[in-house]
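A reminder before we start the practical. When you read a complex entry, don't treat the lines as separate problems. The point of joint prediction is that each chain is placed relative to the others, so the output describes one connected object in space. Small molecules and nucleic acid strands, if listed, are placed in the same frame. In the example below there are two entries. Take a minute to note the order of the lines before looking further.
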Amino acid sequence: MYISHSSLSLLPSAPAIQIRFILIQNRAGKTRLAKWYMQFDDDEKQKLIEEVHAVVTVRDAKHTNFVEVRQKDLLDAMSFRNFKIIYRRYAGLYFCICVDVTDNNLAYLEGIHNFVEVLNEYFHNVCELDLVFNFYKVYTVVDEMFLAGEIRETSQTKVLKQLLMLQSLE
Amino acid sequence: MPAPIRLRELIRTIRTARTQAEEREMIQKECAAIRSSFREEDNTYRCRNVAKLLYMHMLGYPAHFGQLECLKLIASQKFTDKRIGYLGAMLLLDERQDVHLLMTNCIKNDLNHSTQYVQGLALCTLGCMGSSEMCRDLAGEVEKLLKTSNSYLRKKAALCAVHVIRKVPELMEMFLPATKNLLSEKNHGVLHTSVVLLTEMCERSPDMLLHFRKVWILVPQLVRILKNLIMSGYSPEHDVSGISDPFLQVRILRLLRILGRSDDDSSEAMNDILAQVATNTETSKNVGNAILYETVLTIMDIKSESGLRVLAINILGRFLLNNDKNIRYVALTSLLKTVQTDHNAVQRHRSTIVDCLKDLDVSIKRRAMELSFALVNGNNIRGMMKELLYFLDSCDPEFKADCASGVFLAAEKYAPSKRWHIDTIMRVLTTAGSYVRDDSVPNLIQLITNSVEMHAYTVQRLYKALLDDISQQPLVQVSSWCIGEYGDLLVSGQCEEEEPIQVTEDEVLDVLEGLLVSNLSTPVTRGYSLTAIMKLSTRFSSVNRIKKVVSIYGSSIDVELQQRAVEYNALFKKYDHMRPALLERMPIMEKTASNGPTEIVQTNGETEPSVPDTKHPPLVTQPANQANDLLDLLGGNDVVPVIQTTLPTKPASAGGELLDLLGDLSLSSGPAPAPSVPISQPPFLLDGLSSQPLFNDISAAIPPMTAYSKNGLKIEFTFERANPNPNIAVITIHATNTTEADMTEFVFQAAVPKTFQLQLLSPSSNMVPALNQGSVTQVIRVLNPQKQQLRMRVKLTYTHKGSPVQDLAEVNNFPPQSWQ
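Here is the predicted structure of the whole assembly.
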């Protein structure tokens, strides 16, 4: 029942990773943040972004927060890439995390919420414009909480303390 | 040159652009400015320029000319420069550019920097996009940082190590000593990341896994940590809705799962804690459910005891009742995976699963449908089918095909009566007729021919359905075939099951001719109806009308129809004497092997009360009827006769005792087995089998084995492979007796698990002479279509020195070549 990660990777040569990418998009499809934990070509990245957008914006409250996507591999016509998007919508923004199909959906859902709460605290009632104008700071928050495709720090107080320290260095 | 504009300004300006073209223009202008600024090697504003460049990159514009600038920023001493530089490196650079190797030296220096934040930045970048060469070079530094006392850095170093291991698995051993100390940390963040590191190591290398299990004895340590987490009170830092550090709990559970998989000792050690987590966690919020879900996955994967498994399935059942559809989805997915192994436990939640068929979310509906089909069995078939048919009516087209084939399969396996079966199939055809698979038409036709007493009822219902709707091709095809066959029954109004309707011959012919001319009919359907009309010429009296129709189509444009019509015309004209013979009633068809052993039609329950044995699904394997066995998958599917044994040496009660034997055998878990029914074969097949020893000496001869040796009786098995079918293993037993007294009335019986079929041929004699003067031989043929490990339970009875002896034994030491 538990499939080892190495048998289900997005690209044939890449090692198996938990989180493949984190994406924040608005309803129109504009990317507010894109953090990639796996190697992709630029056009592959673009394709993935478009696909995620297409899949996630048509879903509403009566759907689950998980989507499994099968995408034809650009390089190898016979293989499909199987991955799962766990997303959550906050106002006009979709926070999407792409993980392996065998992962625990509910835990990542909590992870997204944790991340958004930190953003909220850091930017004092965050809104989309905050993310636009301070995009480099958002990346810092991401890097404080996630690293190498894994959740790194889950305590909101600790993360906020670090962020404030970093900010004082500027 | 004026100072380049600030980042904020740029963003604001770009946002004011109203069209894509305007935006592109602004960006191009700014890019040009940035490029000239880069050329000037301006240190003060480089940071700002790169930041702007990154913003434009995020919007989707090319920014690769900034890569080298990022490197320069990284090399600078200012923290802000470094920060933007590393961010730029992570966004713009990746493994495939050669430029990234230039970063290695910078990162190395930064990893040894005095400020922890710089070190942190470097670790972060390495962890996100370090290539294998970089990782190899810098692994030593990372390992050093794993041992520092600064917990901020240790966390980052641990995850960076994870990345290094992923890229360069050979470096795993290097991190081993440092990792050991990580688990004794109090800091949750460090604990979390170290669990992640351990997980990664275990997944990558089975040796490491063993090492952790045995040498470090990791499991009790993890259990202790988990226990502390649950028992400790409220800790504000890591608390999420009242549960302390759920993320850490989830990761520990996952690591426990990997450690406990296929290892009994570890699994036992974690039984208690898993039960504790499962019962104590709060389920009101998503957090609790996330932990419970991970616990369930762990329980299912390790070698847990059955009580725990039942607990896990009950948790999943509770999930199904939850309002949150996410949780229902997750539960359905897991139940689908476990339904094969823990079938009974899942059955208890059947009604909830069936309710999920009515859910709004498509993915939940699909999983509920698959699960429902997996849960159908002989007992609940009526109720389940009602729900599933209702679902078929109302579901989306994408489901209809799968649902229809599922319904057919289930109906075939478990139909309680023929009438029910036919009704169900008709219902499917009328509601989802255009979505059924092509081969269901011949299957259905065959089913109808086989249920002889239902012909009148069937043809009547089909006729009525045809009157309503002629658009669904499979339905139309089956109906026209039946009307052609049984039209006489229709017209004579002989139906017992239902109110007979009054139909005249002309009305029937009207309908069939209507099919021929209708636009909705495909060429195949037209073929069916023309043949049906022709068949009616021997059953009806109005032959002239039929002759007219047939001759009209002799000049049809469709070649197939034309050919048929011309041939039928010829039948009327020149071969009229042959017509009745050619067009008489079809004989009962034999079903050829369609999809394997599970497709054999069986009717049990209401119409065949005389065959009690077939009612028990697990007992249907062959030892109870050693002859009459289907070792090839051909054979008729007639109504099941009373089970015969043809071997003269078997007393009648032996069949009953063997049924007990089978009940005790621990049966390997396979897919839901269809009770495959033994059928009396035509005699010539059996003669063919027993007269020729079906030897096939394969180059690797299978070594003989001693299956039983006790009290002087020794039984040896020798193997051959049956020639036509490599799944059949032919075993010859040789029984010898080393005592001084003969063993008389010697009877050898054998039973095998569900997935096998067994046939015992007659033994050479029933007396084993004393002192090895001779032996009794008997041939066993075992069909092993799934190539599972062969196991057998044998029962021996004989009379020795006047007293009867009876013994049971299990034979497990079959050589692998015999069943592979």
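Discuss with your neighbour: Chain A touches chain B through 54 residues (CB under 8 Å). What might explain this?
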